[in-house]
Design a protein that fits this description.
Elements lengths: L21 H6 L3 H15 L4 H15 L2 H14 L3 H10 L7 H15 L6 H4 L20 H9 L3
Helix pairs in contact: 3-4, 3-6
């Protein structure tokens, strides 16, 4: 339940069965903002597989102190990729949880971008460069340049 007066019904709820997430209730106040957020989210998700996207968003959510997002992305990781013990290890310390070196580097990068996007340099992004981080399509890289990452992270969705 949000602390805002949100609508009881919205076109945004049409595809929901049962529980309506809090974020969707808030977006119902401004459906145009939801459409923009979905477009931004899709552009990030489309550059990597779901497993990696969930690890990245988990790292950013932890850094930002968002328990809600940490739990939401942890649930996807638990339901689709890891057992409870492995996920707990990743949340506690991803560097020592048996992830691949690339997944550790990408989670580190997401953490750094979330902590201070203005401090990101090409050296921070280097371990996640297109040659180190293949994507589902050859025409897109998984990570923007450091300047693009810094700009995107400092802009509201």
């Amino acid at each position: 339940m949000t602390y805002l007066a949100t609508p009881a019904d919205s076109p945004l709820f049409a595809n929901q069965t049962g529980h309506i997430p809090n974020y969707l209730r808030v977006f119902a106040l401004q459906p145009g903002a939801y459409a923009a957020w979905e477009q931004l989210s899709a552009s990030v998700r489309d550059g990597m597989d779901l497993h990696r996207y969930e690890l990245v968003t988990l790292a950013a959510a932890r850094r930002l102190g968002s328990d809600y997002c940490t739990l939401a992305h942890s649930k996807v990781l638990r339901d689709r990729f890891y057992d409870a013990d492995r996920l707990r290890a990743i949340v506690d310390d991803h560097r020592n949880a048996g992830l691949s070196p690339l997944d550790v580097a990408i989670m580190d990068f997401a953490d750094q971008v979330a902590a201070d996007p203005t401090a990101i340099t090409d050296e921070h992004a280097a371990p996640c460069a297109p040659t180190a981080c293949p994507t589902r399509t050859s025409s897109r890289s998984s990570w923007p340049s450091a300047s693009a990452a810094s700009s995107a992270a400092s802009s509201p969705p």
